[in-house]
Automatic annotation (TrEMBL):
Keywords: ATP-binding, Nucleotide-binding, Transport. Pfam families: ABC_tran. Coiled coil: none annotated. This is ATP-binding cassette domain-containing protein. The lineage of its organism: Bacteria, Bacillati, Bacillota, Bacilli, Lactobacillales. InterPro entries: AAA+_ATPase (IPR003593), ABC_transporter-like_ATP-bd (IPR003439), ABC_Transporter_VariousFunc (IPR051782), P-loop_NTPase (IPR027417). GO terms for molecular function: ATP binding; ATP hydrolysis activity. Residues 4-208 form the ABC transporter domain. It comes from the Bacteria. The keyword Protein transport does not apply.
Amino acid sequence: MRLLTVAQIAKSFGAQQVLQDVSLTVDSGEVVHIAGGNGSGKSTLLKIVAGIIPATSGTFQLGENTHIGALIENPGFLEGESLKTNLTFLAAINHHSDPAVMAGLAQRFGLDWHSRQSMKKYSIGMREKAGIIQAVMEDQNLILLDEPTRGLDEAALTQLVNLVAELRTAGKAVIIASHDRYTPITYTANYQLEGGRLTRQSDGVPSIPS
Ligand SMILES: Nc1ncnc2c1ncn2[C@@H]1O[C@H](COP(=O)(O)OP(=O)(O)OP(=O)(O)O)[C@@H](O)[C@H]1O
């Protein structure tokens, strides 16, 4: 099932052209890697797909049943509130809250679901974990993860690798942007973003048809 079609997108900030003629399709069961150096436009592309900023030209189309979850740059949280309050609040916005799922994800990533610690005291890795959880906790089927390994310890990295594999098996799709060409995650397709252009590098493991 097609979840996303990006067609010939360009994006400029003033005189700076960041993306040119970027096209991409993503189907369920795909795990797409977008590699690129600092400032190559990875976050910009994900923000366009998430509907946060508009493209200068070109189009993108979501599938009829596409539900996006996203971790892009530094996700905003209510800093004075706990993880549980934050995630419950976010889930309530979409009326799609399952406390057991949220608590299970927190436990999986080694975060104390019942802790009253405010999120302003969270470390970089803890914030990243909270960002990953909010991107998947509502059963979203197209998950955008921008540098999701930032600050993660080894146990959390293993959980992330396993989580992405489970999402793929469940027929969802994940787009991961990172600086590294090689990460421990198993991809079905690899792209490089350079000079504003997105180029397919190679196929990884086959996607699992839904
Ligand atoms: N709101 C904005 N206004 C002006 N320029 C911007 C804006 N957002 C991004 N840019 C510029 O667009 C370019 C691409 O930025 P982007 O954040 O997409 O890169 P990135 O590949 O995600 O980088 P990094 O790996 O460092 O996070 C950069 O030169 C950046 O300065």
